[in-house]
């Protein structure tokens, strides 16, 4: 499924993915829309493709209940993949997800606006990390004190809207001011243009409002639901801070590698670079690629889009 983009994922120091369909395993019975459960092999495929961190806070996290979520968490642990946005105990909920690469400590947090009306079981609100603004800002601030860079995943916005809503931009600003360096958004299922946010720390936060669909089987007429992007960004830590204040991480070489979901008869799904999609895959493919590049550069004219 991911062979065409595997090298791109593997060569990164750290690769992050939003795993929206809970990988609860076949023992619970596989299921698709509107109540998802995927096999553990889906998680195995992401691990083999080079994914190091998955975010689990999304509107489908509780589709198949607590048992499926716990099974998924257990399997991610067995694979050695860090997970954010879901927990199997209060102690796990309070654990900061820290990963170090090349001498830079990265904290990962993830929050979702909702779970399709499914409440966590009584006394187990820790299962899914919900987007409660006060708690989100508090946890980001705490992560800021422990890490060199804070990556925040937000499952928010309106489905199929190609521009972020005012609410998305407001929440992103709150996360930026609280200490987020990069915001990774998803839920709209289509690409939304990213932007830089000037934060209260005097730096810039990269807000990527929606990365579209990376691997999905949505039966939507809109071709944009078959398009996603891999975000590339380089983080650099200056050698020293000022007056005991830790130096702010620098974010550079930002680019988006656009991707396309190729399939035949709703089988044999493959993720390929969008540049490889031809007219047989995507009517008026060349024109769509050009318009998509302009769309993604709306607020970042120098953004590299491939």
Automatic annotation (TrEMBL):
<dbReference type="InterPro" id="IPR019079">
    <property type="entry name" value="Capsule_synth_CapA"/>
</dbReference>
<dbReference type="InterPro" id="IPR052169">
    <property type="entry name" value="CW_Biosynth-Accessory"/>
</dbReference>
<dbReference type="Pfam" id="PF09587">
    <property type="entry name" value="PGA_cap"/>
</dbReference>
<protein>
    <recommendedName>
        <fullName>Capsule synthesis protein CapA domain-containing protein</fullName>
    </recommendedName>
</protein>
<feature type="domain" description="Capsule synthesis protein CapA">
    <location>
        <begin position="1"/>
        <end position="218"/>
    </location>
</feature>
<comment type="similarity">
    <text>Belongs to the CapA family.</text>
</comment>
<dbReference type="InterPro" id="IPR029052">
    <property type="entry name" value="Metallo-depent_PP-like"/>
</dbReference>
């Amino acid at each position: 499924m991911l062979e065409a983009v595997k090298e791109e994922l593997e060569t990164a120091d750290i690769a992050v993915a939003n795993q929206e369909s809970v990988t609860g395993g076949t023992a619970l019975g596989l299921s698709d829309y509107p109540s998802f459960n995927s096999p553990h092999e889906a998680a195995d495929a992401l691990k083999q493709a080079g994914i190091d961190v998955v975010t689990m806070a999304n509107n489908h996290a509780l589709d198949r209940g607590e048992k499926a979520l716990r099974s998924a968490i257990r399997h991610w642990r067995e694979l050695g993949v860090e997970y954010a946005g879901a927990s199997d105990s209060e102690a796990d909920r309070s654990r900061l997800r820290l990963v170090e690469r090349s001498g830079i400590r990265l904290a990962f947090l993830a929050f979702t606006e909702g779970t399709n009306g499914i409440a966590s079981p009584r006394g187990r609100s820790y299962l899914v990390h919900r987007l409660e603004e006060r708690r989100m800002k508090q946890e980001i601030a705490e992560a800021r004190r422990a890490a060199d860079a804070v990556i925040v995943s937000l499952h928010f916005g309106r489905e199929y809207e190609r521009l972020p809503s005012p609410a998305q931009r407001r929440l992103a600003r709150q996360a930026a001011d609280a200490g987020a360096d990069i915001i990774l958004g998803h839920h709209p299922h289509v690409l939304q243009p990213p932007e830089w946010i000037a934060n209260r720390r005097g730096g810039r936060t990269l807000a990527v409002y929606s990365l579209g669909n990376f691997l999905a089987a949505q039966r939507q007429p809109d071709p944009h639901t078959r398009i996603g992007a891999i975000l590339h960004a380089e983080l650099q830590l200056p050698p020293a801070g000022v007056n005991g204040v830790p130096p702010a991480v620098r974010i550079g070489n930002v680019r988006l590698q656009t991707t396309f979901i190729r399939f035949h008869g709703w089988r044999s799904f493959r993720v390929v670079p969008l540049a490889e999609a031809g007219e047989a895959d995507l009517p008026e493919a060349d024109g769509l690629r050009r318009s998509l590049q302009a769309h993604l550069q709306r607020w970042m004219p120098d953004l590299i889009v491939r």
